Amino acid sequence: MKKNIIMLVTGIVMLSGCDDLFSPAIDNFKDQEQVNSSSEYAQGMLLNCYRIIPGYYSDTDYATDDAVTNQKGNPYLNMATGNWTAADNPVNFWNQGYNTINVLNRFIANIDNVKWTDDEEPARLFRMRVTGEAYGLRALFYYYLLRNHAGITDDGQLMGVPLFTTFLSSDANFNMPRATFSECVRQIISDLDSAEAKLPEEHENINSNSDIPAKYLGITKRKEVYNRVMGQYARQLFNGIIAKAIRSRVTLLAASPAFKGDQQAWGTAADAAAAVIDHVGGVDGLAANGVTYYCNTTEIDALKEGVNPKEILWRENIQTADDSQEQNNYPPSWFGKGMMNPTQNLVDAFPMANGYPISNPKSGYNAEDPFSGRDPRLSKYIFYNGSKGTADDGTGTSHDVAILTGSLSGTDDGINVKETSTRTGYYMKKRLRMDVNCNPSSNMKKPHYIPRVRYTEIFLNYAEAANEAYGPTGRGGHEYSAYDVIKAIRKRAGLAKGQEDAYLEECKDDKDKMRQLIRNERRLELCFESFRFWDLRRWNSTLTETARGMDANAGAYHPFDVEQRAFADYMTFCPIPYSEILKYDALKQNKGWK
Predict the structure, then answer these.
(1) Percent of the chain residues topping a pLDDT of 90
(2) Fewest CB within a 10 Å sphere: which of 48, 308, 361, 518?
(3) What is the pLDDT of residues 240-251, one digit of tens each?
C-alpha cells in the first residue's frame, strides 16, 4: 500500500504539467506529528490535490468588458481579440481536472487500507475526515470541469463532461461519452452530500465532550480525540461549510439562462446559498469590512493558525512576505507593471454615492468632473486620474502623490507611455496593499492571502437566485429576500449614506430592474476576482462590448475605444480540447468549435 501511495503522490505532480499551477502549501498540515509514515503519503496525496485547485485571481477579467492588459501575447488578450480555438484555449481545465479526479478516485478506493494511527478512535476519525475531503475535492474539480467545458452540442443536447467515479489505470477505456449536464450536477451534489455527512461544519476545537457532534459519537466521546482530528489543526481543509458554498456555486450555474434553468432550479440555488448565509447569522452576518478584504492590513497581519477573517469562508495559505500582486499591478511610477487596466465600461458601472446609476437624471453625475461624488468603492478598487496614494519617489522616501494617467501627463503612468503603462487611463487598486513598497532599493513586502470563497459571493448568489425564484421581496421560506441582501451590500458600500436608498426602492417592485441591479452589484463587488468572464456566459449576455478608456488631460476628458472583442455567439460555451476530440470518437464537441 505504501508503494502505491508513493506512486500516486509522484504521479499527480507529474500529471499536473507545470509548477506554476501549485499554490503555497496549506498552513495547517501538521500530519507528520499526528500520523505514521504510510498516512503521511496519503495526506501528501490530498495536499497535492489542494494545491491544484484553480487560482482565485486567474485574470480572466482581461477577456471581459471590465479590463484589458498591457501584456502583449497574454493568452486572455489573444482569446478576446479572435485567437481562441479548441486547440488553444486559456481556460482549458480538462487534463488538470481529470488527472486530479483519477488520483482522488484511487485515494477513495484505498482509504480503508491506510493505517492512519495506532489508536483506533482517531484512526476511524481520520478515515472519516479524509474521505469527506476527497469527496468534497472531487465535487469541486467536477464543478470546474463543468463550468469550463459544458455546452450544447450540434444535435442541441446540453452536455456536461464524462463522469469517472472509479480509478482508471493506464490501460482502461478512456473513450467515454459525455454525461448530460444534469447528470453531472447530480454527481457533484451527491459528492457534496457525502462530504457533508462526514465533515464538521468548521474545523474548530470543542471545549467539552458534550460538544462532540452527534455523527461522531459512535466513534469517540472524548473531546481530545475529536480535536486531534476534526479540530483547529484541520483549518483550511475541506469542511461542511465549504461543501455548502460549492453547492451554491453549482446550483447557481445550473439555474442560469445558458444552462436552461427554470424557477425550480433558481429556488434550489437560493436554498443552497441560504444555508451558507444562515451559518453566519443571516444578513447581519455580512462582514462590515468585506469591501476591502484585500487591504485590511491590521486584520491580515494578525492572521495565524488558519483563522479566517469574517469575510472569508475559505482561503489559501498566508504569504508572510509578498509583493507579487503589487509588482504586477502597481502603476509604473510605483515600480509596478500595471498589468490590469480597468475599462471605462467598468468605471461607468459604479453609481453615484446617492445610489443612482450615472445614466439616471437623478444621479447628479457631471461628465466634466466624473469621479466626484461617486460610489466609494470606485476609489477603493480603481486608480483613476488624480488618485492619490503614498508611494516611494525612487529615493527611498515616501510621499503622498497623485497618479496622472492622461496621455499628456508627462509621467510613466500616462496612457501607452511605455509597455507597463495603462492602455485605458486606469489601474487596478483592488487586491493591492498600499503599504507595500516595490522600489528595489527600499523594497517592503507584506503578508497577503488569496481567497478561495468570499461570503459576499454567496450573498450575491442568493440575491440573484431569490429574485428569480420569488421576486425582489419574496423570501421563499427564508428570513431575508433579494432586496434585503442587496440593501445590506449597498449600505456596507456607503451608498445613500444617512438617507433612503431611493434607487433600490425603485427596483424592489420590478423583478427585471432588480435583476439588472443585482448583476451590477455582483460586477462591482467581485470585480477583478475572475467572475465576470463566467457570469457573462451563464447569463447569455453580450460578449463583444468594446473595451473603452478615458484620456484625462488638463481637466478635459476624452473617451476612446481600446480593444475590440471578437467572441462569436457559440463562445458562450467553452470547447472540449481538440486533442481529446481527435483521440476519442465518443466525445461530442460543443457546437461551433472545430
Answers:
(1) 89
(2) 361
(3) 999 999 999 999
- Grid cell digits, residue 393: 519617489
Residues 6+ apart with CB under 8 A from 39: 31, 114, 115, 116, 117, 126
Instruction: Give the Cα separation of 9 and 99 in Å (integer).
Output: 12
What is 509-554 written as a DSSP string?
T-HHHHHHHHHHHHHHHTTTTT-HHHHHHHTT--S-PPEEEEEEET
438-469: pLDDT as tens digits = 999 999 999 999 999 999 999 999 999 999 99
Give the phi and the psi of residue 461 in degrees, each rounded to 5.
-55, -45
Chain segment 196-238, per-residue pLDDT in tens? 999 999 999 999 999 999 999 999 999 999 999 999 999 999 9
Contact 12, 103 (CB under 8 A): yes
Q: How many CA atoms lie within 13 A of 202 on its CB side?
A: 13
DSSP bridge pairs for 68: 341
Burial of 91 (0-12, 13-18, 19+ CB in 10 A): buried
Residues found in the chain: 594
Distance of CA 248 to the CA centre of its chain: 13
Which pTM value belongs to this model? Answer: 0.93
Looking at the DSSP bridge assignments, the partners of residue 392 are 398
What's the CA gap between 266 and 538, in Å, rounded? Answer: 13
Give how far the C-alpha of residue 496 lies from the chain's centroid of Cα atoms, to the nearest Å: 28
Give every CB contact of residue 420 below 8 A, 6+ residues apart in sequence.
Answer: 70, 332, 336, 337, 338, 412
**Cα distance between residue 282 and residue 480, in whole Å:** 8
Mean local confidence (pLDDT), 47-75 = 97
Q: What rounded mean pLDDT belongs to the chain?
A: 93
Return the C-alpha cell found at 502: 431611493
CB 215 within 8 A of CB 193: no
Say whether pLDDT at 411 is over 90.
Answer: yes
Question: CB neighbours (10 Å) of residue 38?
Answer: 16
For residue 398, the SS3 value is strand
